[in-house]
Amino acid sequence: MPINLFGVPDPREDERHIPFEPHPSYRQLLEEIRGYAVFMLTRDNRIASWSRGVEETLGYGRDEFIGQSGNILFIPEDVADGEPGKEIETAVREGTAGDNRWHLKKDGRRFWANGVLSAIHDQAGEVLGFVKVMRDNTEQKEAEDALQRAQFELERRVEERTAELRETLEELKRSERLFAAIFRAGPFAAAVIHGADGRFVEVNEAFCRLSGYREDEVTELTIDDLTDHYSSQPSRTNSGPDGRDGFRDRELQFRTRDDELRTVLASEVRVPLNGEGGRLLMFFDITERKRGEEELMQAIQDVMQDASWFSRSVVERLAEIRSGTVDRTRVGELTRRERQVLEQLARGRSNADIAHELGIATQTVRNYITSVYEKIGVRSRVEAVVWARERGLGL
User: Fold this and answer.
1) Least confident of 16-20, 123-127, 302-306
2) What mean pLDDT comes out for the span 94-120?
3) 199 with 278: CB under 8 angstroms?
């Protein structure tokens, strides 16, 4: 009798009911994934596997988790609205379904999960079941909500003060001082730019930490120097209820002083600036969250698409993506100067500091870094630092 990818006989070849049970190799793979709740569901929404990440994220042990309805993870309001069934229908129809909502842990606590439900098909295209990947992003959700509340509060205060204090110059100055205090003390990276040319007028300390620039350096730049095609994007996305121009939570690529690309959520609101139009921008860095999610999802997709996905080579490839390990013999491929530059990177030095330490030009440092990335097989400064420290470089 044919064996499907779950390690059980194909039910179409036998009229008897056959339990939905993952292949032992796949079950071992799932159970080793940490930091994410990864498990399988049957076509009728029954939980069919367990992983260490399930226990860490949801609090369920193996025996009390497998066999339960997938509905136990949804909050009562969503169950009443039929959200579990809708999610399955979307995954059957489109292949995947996003699952970004409030969920329940075993102890009844609610948490914000970012996840996806992926349909698994047999060779004939029939849906056998699903793989669900979930991550507890409650802290991130609360931070984003705090950012929005702070932004709404800032807008409200600016609007109220502008309306109330127009009558006298002294009152207007008092409002500007209040705005400046909120702007300077804010925990999120913020900047005021000219509406016409995008030139920076003022930034706060959090912005300097994100970008790596001093304030006097930033005022010589424009927003397009630090982000990709910012000015060419429409600005009336997600405008407020009063129709005022601006946007919230737009994902952008942000370039730091060291030429590192960071992924940020940006929000904008128009503000008066010396009688001209200006923009208040706020940025929230989500680089590490994005990188972790993309790497795990790519690993899951590789396993699903490879006909020999339960073989040792595929398991090792997934482990390499998750752990960030690479061939240790590559250290010997580096030149003496490249190794010196990598050791400085591992110590957290900037390009300018490395140039000063080694007595070479900053552009030369960038060229060495590019060569190092290519030789050790990484794509970013953070990955290079991890790679070096795992091998005892720069410690």
Assistant:
1) 16-20
2) 92
3) no
Residues 36/134, Cβ–Cβ less than 8 Å: yes
Crossing angle of the two packed helices 312-323 and 24-32, in degrees rounded to 10: 10
Whether the Cβ atoms of residue 35 and residue 128 lie closer than 8 Å to each other:
no
Look up residue 202 and give its amino acid: E
Model pLDDT, residue 82: 94
* Choice between 219 and 245, residue whose per-residue pLDDT is larger: 219
382 pLDDT exceeds 80? yes
CB atoms within 10 A of CB 197: 10
Q: From the CB of residue 131, how many other CB atoms can be counted at a distance below 10 Å?
A: 23
- Residues 4-20: pLDDT tens digits? 444 444 444 433 333 44
- Flag whether the pTM goes above 0.85: no
Assign 3-class secondary structure to the chain: CCECCCCCECHHHCCCCCCCCCCHHHHHHHHHCCCCEEEEEECCCEECCCCHHHHHHHCCCHHHHCCCEHHHHECHHHHHCCHHHHHHHHHHHHCEEECCEEEECCCCCEEEEEEEEEEEECCCCCEEEEEEEEEECHHHHHHHHHHHHHHHHHHHHHHHHHHHCCCCHHHHHHHHHHHHHHHHHCCCEEEEEECCCCEEEEECHHHHHHHCCCHHHHCCCEHHHHECCCCCCCCCCCCCCCCCCEEEEEEEEEECCCCCEEEEEEEEEEEEECCEEEEEEEEEECHHHHHHHHHHHHHHHHHHHCCCCCCHHHHHHHHHHHHCCCCHHHHHHCCHHHHHHHHHHHCCCCHHHHHHHHCCCHHHHHHHHHHHHHHHCCCCHHHHHHHHHHCCCCC
How far apart CA 207 and CA 188 sit, in angstroms, is 7
Q: Among 216, 189, 212, 197, which Cα is nearest to 280's?
A: 189
- Sheet of 189-194: strand order equals 200-203, 189-194, 276-285, 261-273, 246-255
Does position 158 have pLDDT exceeding 80, yes or no? no
Residues forming a β-bridge with 194: 278
